[in-house]
What does this fold into?
Amino acid sequence: ITTLINHKDNTKKSDKTLQAIQRVGQAVNLAVGRFVKVGEAIANENWDLKEEINIACIEAKQAGETIAALTDISSLNHPESDGQITIFTDKTGVIKAARLLLSSVTKVLLLADRVVIKQIITSRNKVLATMERLEKVNSFQEFVQIFSQFGNEMVEFAHLTGDRQNDLKDEKKKAKMAAARAVLEKCTMMLLTASKTCLRHPNCESAHKNKEGVFDRMKVALDKVIEIVTDCKPSGETDISSVSIFTGIKEFKMNIEALRENLYFQSKENLSATLEVILERTEDFTDSAYTSHEHRERILELSTQARLELRQLISVWIQNQSKKTKSIGEELELSILKISHSLNELKKELHSTATQLAADLLKYHADHVVLKALKLTGVEGNLEGLAEYACKLSEQKEQLVEVCRLLRHISGTEPLEITCIHAEETFQVTGQQIISAAETLTLHPSSKIAKENLDVFCEAWESQISDMSTLLREINDVFGGRRGEKYGYLSLPRPMKSNANLKSLKADKPDSEEQAKIAKLGLKLGLLTSDANCEIKKWEDQENEIVRNGRNMSSMAYSLYLFTRGEGPLKTSQALIHQLEVFAEEGLKLASSVQVLSKQLKDDDKLMLLLEINKLIPLCHQLQTITKTPLQNQVFLKVDKCITKTRSMMAILVQLLSLCYKLLKKLQMENNRWASVTNKDSVDGKT
It folds into this structure.
């Protein structure tokens, strides 16, 4: 649409330009057609929104057809079509149609979004209802039946929320959703063993306490998912970003730097109050029993220095407001630089304090001595030993919770801040649950299910410790400016790793010129996929091997086109390179399929096909070579080369699909003619 509206109104238009504009118009219409089909399918499944979705789909379809008609240049070759309205005679028509199209498409998207939200809420309600039944169950047989149903409902809920998480654009919401889903994922196994333990030992108070803890946490996580999906915060919830010291320093520095442009931007009192709030929060570090004496002294020293430099800045600021001179202006600039430097030093010190403390703590607890001791005291039925190691685990839990709070202050990004909060909550809750599970085992030392239950909670603790070490690396990367690909929640399954050559691919953000070049290449690729789809539709036999290969290549090329726009399923350069490897393989498969057809053809026709195949095969091998060649810190160059090769391969694909279709038709006609002649000869012979 943007291409159509922005095209230059030259008086002279070459055939190439006219054809390109017509292809863009057709591509828009085809895309709208695909979109409308999906919209209509959603409407048929949701009667309460059917009428609204169908109206919006009809509007979109009409707009797409209007754009196709206005860009149809085939009629320009006929003299009788002089009075016909086209994009060249009336550009406003295309603009109106584009507005109607965007409006109707947006309506369909919003209505479809309501459908997805409704699906998630319905799924959550099913899970909650089954959980209530699980809480009240008294027999083991009944529990097994209900838990089987609960498992299926949780799988459905996981799929719906996983898709929603991928669709979310807000990184903060994405991190919150991931944290809530991680809780549900881990608690499902805990719920199984905790409930079985309760059924086996119905009079054990610690077993009931353990089970209630799991149910409570799952209910909170389910509510959190619905809050994120519906975008409704409960009353009284505060924004966690206000708690972070690093966020406060960032905002404060922006405020003082704004004084360069505007001396009356804000009051001195506000600036002083903002700094005091930041320095007050550093007390979380200085008051902590785990902070070393050296770090505490240095933090206090830098806090005092920041206060003094702010006073100096305010003094110069007041002078600058009353009389503007060059020397005072320079003095103000120096004061801004000094306080910025002090705050940067404070950030470094806080980061060093928190990360060093976290690293030491993780190293100290890496062997999980306390967990092993709790398991041993449980199977021995040693109540005194239980009391001793439960106390040690509580101390360990308090240490980890406090370190998570300190890491939250220096995390550097909102998603990592949310991950710190999630880790803090997990240690807090899981620590108590391990103690109650250990108490149950100690009271029933021969119980296999009580032992299994304790193992499950200990594994959850160990998993969170492992996640915390990954979180620490993430925080260090952000602080050191080494942040890699897009943030993904740490405890969820990682994406598939590609071959070793991809290790060199890091996030290498292209500049505006490079982005424009990739977008232009992508647009041409998008048009070629439309051409390929048009050729594929001509084939009567949609299961033909050539059609299958062509359809697969077109689908992958369309994903690459979406990647150039920052959309679609390919989110990282690694995913793109992997897709290109598969695309090259599919190209070679297509070449083999076409060679099979060529063996059935006469020499002239066979030669035509082989010439096209001989163009395609080298391109496939070249693309494979490029994907496997490591280009250190040159991701854009690699992507640029790959998309250029892909575009050339798609151009050949369009030619091959058209040529194969014609030659196959010709072959069928010749075979039919030969069959009819043979039949006639046979009949004559009989006569």
Observations:
- The mean pLDDT is 82.
- The chain is about 80% helix and 0% strand.
- Residues 434 and 444 are 15 Å apart (CA to CA).
